[in-house]
Design goal:
It is built from 4 helices and 4 strands. The protein is α+β, with helices and mostly antiparallel strands. It has one domain: 3-Layer(aba) Sandwich (GIY-YIG endonuclease), CATH 3.40.1440. A hairpin with a 4-residue loop joins strand 1 and strand 2.
C-alpha cells in the first residue's frame, strides 16, 4: 500500500534547482525576472498564469496576449548551488543574484516589467 504521508515527505525533502527565471518579450527586449527556490515549478506556474491571463503584472499579460506566446521566451536565467543553508540565507543569496542581473541587463539596454 502507498503511504501518502511518506510520499509527501520525500517530495518536500527533494532539492530543486533554485535561482533566477526570466520571461522575455523578444520584439521589445523587455523582461520580467524573478527568483525561486524551485525553478521548474515556478516556470510551469508562470507559463500557466500567462496562458490564462492571470499573472499579477497586467502589462506583461497584455503584451503576451497582443504579441502572442511565440514572441516570448520563458527560461532559467541563472542557478545557484544549494548548500546546507536556511531558507532565509537562500532567499538573501537569490536577492543578491537578482540585483546583480538587473544591473547587468540594464547596462545592456533591457527594460523590465517589474524592476525600476
Amino acid at each position: 500500500m502507498i503511504n501518502k504521508k511518506e510520499i509527501i515527505k520525500e517530495y518536500k525533502n527533494q532539492k530543486h534547482p533554485a535561482g533566477l527565471y526570466a520571461v522575455k518579450n523578444k520584439p521589445d527586449n523587455k523582461m520580467f525576472i524573478g527568483t525561486s527556490i524551485n525553478l521548474p515549478a515556478k516556470i510551469r506556474g508562470i507559463t500557466f498564469e500567462l496562458e490564462m491571463g492571470s499573472h499579477t503584472y497586467d502589462n506583461l499579460v497584455n503584451d503576451y496576449k497582443q504579441l502572442g506566446k511565440e514572441n516570448f521566451e520563458i527560461f532559467i536565467l541563472d542557478q545557484i548551488e544549494i548548500k546546507e543553508e536556511t531558507d532565509r540565507e537562500l532567499r538573501t543569496e537569490l536577492e543578491t543574484l537578482e540585483a546583480m542581473w538587473v544591473e547587468k541587463l540594464k547596462s545592456e539596454g533591457v527594460s523590465f516589467y517589474n524592476k525600476k
